[in-house]
Amino acid sequence: MKKLMLAATALAGFSAPAFAQDALTLQLKWVTQAQFAGYYVALEKGYYSDENLDVTILPGGPDVAPPQVLAGGGADVMVDWLASALAVREGGLPVVNIAQPFASSGLLLTCWKDAGFTGPQDFKGHTLGVWFGGNEYPFLSWMSRENIPVDGGADGVTILRQGFNVDPLIQRQADCISTMTYNEYGQVLDAGVTADELTNFSFEAEGVATLEDGLYVLEDRLTDEAFADKLVRFVRASMKGWKYAEENPTEAAEIVLEFDETGAQTEAHQIYMMGEIAKLTAGSNGALDPAAFDRTVEVLMAPGSDPVITKVPEDAWTHMITDRALD
Q1: Average predicted confidence (pLDDT) for the chain
Q2: Under a CB-based contact definition with an 8 Å cutoff, are residues 268 and 229 in contact?
Q3: DSSP 273-311
């Protein structure tokens, strides 16, 4: 909707900016929603324009793989989880974390309480819903650490490749499904299930959390000073947007809705989501915490049946952008 309004404004003959701004394209990890509120707030509030940036935000979706978009030149920066980024880096695509707006993880495994699960060893012999497309790595690491096979059987778990909805739990196709605190868990409650009927296993509480939404670019582009300068301004404006969103969650949710061209999002859910997202971005100034990075690597390389990465990554993150952006 917002894009259409801007187009209409241009057709009506309003004057263009006097000076060309530096273009930068951001590829989101998922669809337009409050998970990415900081970027939309920065766009709407003019924080990017203040930095002489013309930022285009590309929504993601089930058919969009941000690393592929980045590799193909379709975006300058992508939002991705560190587990996914490290996996693709080890696979040959040299992506680098330049900023980390999310300080903690919102990933849950949400289970029916009547399944009787008290810990991961109880999952054996059961069916669990797991997202793929790069979101599977934290779960696979957890199971690897617990030495629980993921190919079924009485001593393993059967994985149901979960779509991005909560139907497998509601319809009892799986005893547990992957949820995010800020999205699918709320959808389960909206479906009429009470919190008392559920048991949540938090990846943070289980000690297997990995860093989630961060900003990534291709490593070789960091040697281009003009590009690095754009990134500095982009990160500075984005973090300003994130802090505004944290402090003004209802307004931030309304801004996100203005940019949702699908019309699929509801105000109530986006306000709920922004409230939960603010808990995850709280405490982050945008600079990646090296200790959190090391913890993620440790989780991903946990001894067990199938580590996600096989060696400690080198040069997979940098403070060269945030040091200048947050100075």
Answers
A1: 91
A2: no
A3: HHHHHHHHHTT--BS--HHHHHHHHHHHT-SSS--S-SS
Per the listing, tokens 């695509």 go with 93
Distance, in Å, from the CA atom of 13 to the CA atom of 16, rounded to the nearest integer, reads: 9
What beta strand segments (E) does the chain contain? 22-27, 53-58, 77-80, 95-99, 107-112, 127-130, 158-161, 176-180, 198-202, 214-218
Selection from 254, 237, 262, 213 nearest residue 326 by Cα: 237
Please give the radius of gyration of the chain, using alpha carbons only, rounded to the nearest integer: 20
pLDDT, tens only, 223-266: 999 999 999 999 999 999 999 999 999 999 999 999 998 888 89
Helix, strand counts (H, E) of the chain: 13, 10
Cα–Cα distance, 80 to 211 (Å, whole number) = 9
- Report pLDDT digits (tens) over 87-142: 999 999 999 999 999 999 999 999 999 999 999 999 999 999 999 876 788 898 89
Phi/psi at 325 (5° precision): -70, -35
